[in-house]
Every structure is written in C-alpha cells, then in structure tokens.
Specification:
Chain A is an alpha/beta fold. Helices cover about 30% and strands about 20% of the residues of chain A. In chain A, about 30% of the residues are buried. The chains are: A alpha/beta (about 190), B alpha+beta (about 400).
Chain lengths: ~190, ~400
C-alpha cells in the first residue's frame, strides 16, 4: 500500500485532518498522532499492530519523530508516520499506551534529541546519566573538549605534584571566570582520516 | 568474659519474623549473569521479585553520533561492535540499508555468500546463547565448552574469509570483500555435515534433562499479545507463537529461494525459547546446504562500487532515507538512514533488538525468584554492545 492510498483512507476516516506526504512517510500534526496510530492499529484493514522503530531526526529548523509501523498478522508495512515539532518546545504525545515497544525507544529519543513524549510513564534518560546536560544527537551539541585543561584539571594536577605551565593555567582560569566549559568543535566534513 | 546472650529468643510465630519488608537489591552491573555491564534494580518481597527496573548505558559510546561524523563505509567496521557475537549479521543489516538508500545491486554470488555467512552467524549465536543459558542455570562451563568447540570451527572460517574471527567487517556496499576459495567452501560444507551430529549430542544432554525442564518450563512466560505489542522479535517472539521472521516476511536478499521452516513455540517460556533456538539452528543448516549447493560462480562485488574502499568519501548517496532491516539472530536489526547528499549520513539510527526485547523483562520476572530472573535474562539473549549503542 503506497502512502497516497493510506492518506486517502485516513482522510476519509478523519475528515479535515492535515496530512502531507513526505518521502515514503505521512507527515502529521502532533495532536493527530495518537488517533491515527490507534486507527491504524485497530482497524481491520490495516492491523498495524507492531511498532518496529521510533527515532528522532534533527532537521535544524525542526525536530522530527519517525515511526515505522508493520502488521504482524497481515505481513504488510511499513507505514511511516512523521511528526514535526519546533526545536525549542518539542512535545509529542506518547504512544506507550498503544504500543509497549515505544517505552524504551521514546526514552532513547528523549535522551538523545530531547523530545518530550507526553504521557510516557517513565520518561527518564536511558543511556546518559542523571543530571547530564544537553542532547548529544542534536546537530548543535558540542561535546566536551578533552584536550583542554579546565580549572578542576589544573587543581587536580597540582595536587598530585605536576607543574602546570602558566599559559594553560591562565586559559583555565579565564574559562572559569567566564563561566564556560571547554567545548570541542564538530568534526568538519572530510576531516576524518580515511 | 562470657559470650553475649540474646535478650530475647525469636520464635517462628513472632510477628517480627512474619512481616517481610520490601528489600531493594542491585543485580549487577559487575556480575557474570548479566552478560556484560548491565544492572537490574530489583525489589524483593522475601525472595520474590515485586519490581524490576533495568538500568543501562554503562557501555554507551554514542555509536550513532560517531557514525554521523564518518563516511558511510567508515561505519561498517563499527557495526561489528554492536552485537559482537554476530558481526556478519550487523554488516548485513547496514549494507542492506545503504544499498536501499543508494540503489545498489549486488551480484548473485555475493548474495549467496552473504546468506551463508548470516546463517553461520546464527549458528554461532544460538549455540553460544544456549551454552550461556546453561551457565546461568548452574551447569558451569560443560555445555559452554561443547558449544564453543563448534563455534570455534565457524570462527576459523570467518578468520579465513574476513581476516578476523569476531570483528569480521566482511560485507561491502554492493558485495563482499573477498571471494570464498574452494578450500573454505569445503570447510563450510564439512561443518554443515558435522553440525547435526553435534546438535543431536547437545540435545541428548539437555532437552530432556530433568533439571533443565524443571527450571525452565513455565518460567518467564511471554504471551502472544504482549510479544507483538512490545515489539519483541527474533527467537523470543517465535517462542511465544508469533509467526514473524523477516527472512519470510521481507524476503530480503535471496531468502525467497530457500526452503526452510519457522519453528514456533506454544507457551513462550524459557524452555520454548531454548527449543526454538535449537530448531532454528536445524533450519539454518538446511539453508546452508541449499546455498552451498546452488552457489553460482561469478564476481562477488558490483564493479561500479569496487573502488569505493579506497575512496569512501566519494560515495555520496542521493538525498533520501531508508530503513533496512534483517533477521539478526537476536531479532529484528534495523538501520534507519537519512542522507543529505553528502558523504556522511545526516542521521544514522540503529534499532537494536537487544534493547527492545528487554522491554518485557519486568513483566516476565514479576512473581518469580531471583534465580529465575537470571535465566529469564539469559533466555532473552542480550548483548550489551548493541543494547547500549
């Protein structure tokens, strides 16, 4: 079943629903996601009872959550659903009460991209530790620069009897005074040794 | 000095001894039964589990971000490190996703070689998982050694074709790295001929073993509906009767050419998961026999992409996205790729079967004893490299 046919079916089921075809998937508004997913799961025609994959993609101007639905009984699929949300307030209703397989995957997408799945029973970070700041898979995330000495490092070294050169010390002090952390730059395309 | 005397002697009828308190225990992260660095936060009532929360991320290395900062081919060796028992299957899934993205054809012989490697990997995985499961049951190392004796033969084949025993890095976009020599083909044939005998021996020791039956039957029962709803795949879902094997459903690569059956369980307990794995190995052997008989001569690499290995940055798939999934030994391994037309993937996502099969761990363990939690975890078959990304 191609996306255009599914779109027609959904539009006849939910009159006035805004659906757009993007690639192989259907772009929905966040408020329509749950009812569409429920319809796809429970209607006798689709029986999309298996939610294979949830993931999030950072498209710079917005974040997108992508759902791949399959039918175990009819062996059809995938139906790809997409939901776009603004970067500064990414909220999408959770699908956990429809599909248990969303439980860890939504936690993963929250951990890595910072999308808040509303209604998730236990939305915590899954891989990163508690108190970690930032969302590592967003394109603007900069990892810590481990090559630069920060003030804590300088103190640790001096406590262990290592003399830190004055310029490094000064740099660390400036960083601390500015309230900044040493952040690495993102690797430029082509910078990797091949 | 006289020894201290208890002021009060407790009796069994004492209310102090009858009220049990909920007790919280961390199983792991440094414990052999957790199959890696993985922790289960367990609440116990006596010895019965009343709550279980898996805690992961100890091996997290942001696999996805590293892959997004690399060329497409550059991540191929890195996929080996996902599920380090089955590097060939991981390569297969990734190659399939990229081939779908860039619309690359794979020559006939390479398809056969891929299927042969994927099925050998399945043998390696299932045989060692059963060994480890028995380890968890307390049969220390004898079954594992039997299993590893066979695994070793297959790893030798991997070493001969790919140059490495575990981190194979063998598949390429549009084919495989090296051709199978006649000597290797003979060797694989010999393994395939000898394997049923080993399986009979293995089953003779285990399948009707009384202790194994008592410990595994009716333990950790996963009902059909929950298995589908929670996205459980692989042998674990099939043990619950879910007839969903991507080799039959998607018929990717050339799996439509082989005759094989999908073994299904009825109850969905640990014992069924064990049996399904044994039966799956027998079916894999059937596929291997057919593949080895039918394998044609010819190139193993699409000539257009043969030079790719020397200049991986020249490989720029067109804009678009692809979701490639294979039936890895642990379940459905999916790769979701988004290309922006440059040499690096814009988004690279792994749908790890180990992670998602773990969703139901709490449901399976509730009401069981701690010792059962260990074998239930063993029967789910997780690998932390894949689980933690």
């Amino acid at each position: 079943m191609n996306p255009a046919e599914i779109k027609t079916k959904l539009e006849s089921e939910f009159p006035g629903i805004p659906i757009q075809i993007v690639g192989e998937g259907l772009l929905l508004g966040p408020e329509d996601l749950v009812r569409v997913a429920r319809f796809l799961k429970e209607s006798g025609e689709f029986k999309m009872n298996y939610l294979s994959s949830i993931t999030a993609v950072d498209y710079l101007e917005h974040l997108e959550s992508v759902y791949h639905l399959y039918s175990v009984d009819q062996r059809t699929g995938p139906v790809v659903l997409r939901v776009r949300v603004p970067r500064d307030n990414p909220r999408i209703p959770s699908l956990v009460h429809l599909f248990r397989s969303a439980e860890f995957q939504e936690r993963e997408a929250y951990d890595m991209m910072g999308i808040r799945y509303e209604g998730h029973p236990d939305l915590r970070r899954i891989f990163m530790w508690e108190g970690f700041e930032g969302y590592p898979l967003r394109k603007d995330y900069l990892p810590e620069n481990e090559d630069v000495l920060e003030w804590d490092d300088v103190e640790w070294l001096e406590r262990h009897g290592v003399t830190v050169p004055a310029e490094y010390k000064q740099y660390a002090q400036d960083l601390k005074a500015a309230g900044k952390e040493a952040r690495a730059e993102r690797p430029k395309p082509g910078a990797e040794a091949v | 000095m006289s020894p201290p005397v208890l002021e009060k002697t407790f009796q069994a009828s004492d209310p102090v001894l009858q009220d049990t308190e909920t007790f919280e225990v961390n199983l792991g992260p440094q414990h052999p039964s957790t199959h890696g660095v993985f922790r289960m936060n367990v609440k116990l009532e006596g010895e019965t589990i009343v709550s279980l929360k898996p805690v992961m991320g100890y091996l997290h290395r942001n696999h996805e971000q590293i892959a997004e900062n690399m060329s497409y081919l550059g991540s191929m060796p890195y996929t080996d490190r996902l599920d380090y028992f089955n590097s060939m299957s991981n390569n297969f899934g990734y190659a399939l996703a990229v081939e779908r993205l860039a619309k690359i054809d794979v020559p006939e012989r390479a398809q056969y070689v891929r299927v042969i490697m994927a099925e050998l990997t399945r043998l390696v995985n299932h045989v060692s998982v059963i060994g480890f499961l028995l380890n968890d049951l307390g049969a220390f190392f004898t079954p594992v050694l039997y299993a590893f004796r066979e695994r070793e033969k297959i790893l030798d084949v991997f070493e001969e074709v790919a140059g490495s025993r575990m981190m194979c890095n063998y598949l390429r976009f549009g084919g495989v790295k090296r051709d199978l020599t006649p000597a290797v083909t003979e060797r694989i044939k010999k393994i395939v001929r000898g394997f049923p005998k080993f399986l009979d021996e293995f089953e003779g020791l285990l399948t009707r073993n009384e202790i194994l039956c008592i410990r595994c039957q009716k333990v950790g029962v996963l009902p059909y509906d929950l298995a589908v709803n929670a996205g459980i795949t692989g042998p674990m879902a099939r043990a619950s009767g879910v007839n969903y094997d991507l080799r039959k459903v998607d018929r990717y690569s050339i799996y439509d050419r082989f005759k094989f059956k999908i073994p299904l369980g009825k109850i969905g307990d640990v014992y069924d998961r064990y049996l399904v794995r044994i039966l799956e190995m027998r079916e894999s052997l059937k596929i291997l026999e057919q593949a080895l008989k039918e394998i044609p001569a010819g190139p193993v690499m699409n000539p257009k992409f043969a030079a790719l290995a020397k200049a991986p940055r020249n490989f720029k798939p067109p804009k678009g996205e692809a979701y490639g999934r294979v039936e890895a030994p642990k379940g459905e391994l999916g790769f979701y790729l988004v290309s922006d037309g440059t040499a690096q993937p814009w988004r690279y996502h792994v749908r790890a079967p180990s992670l998602i099969n773990l969703t139901v761990l709490e449901d399976l363990c509730l009401g069981h004893k701690v010792a059962d939690a260990v074998i239930i975890l063993g029967s789910i078959d997780i690998v932390l490299g894949e689980l933690d990304h």
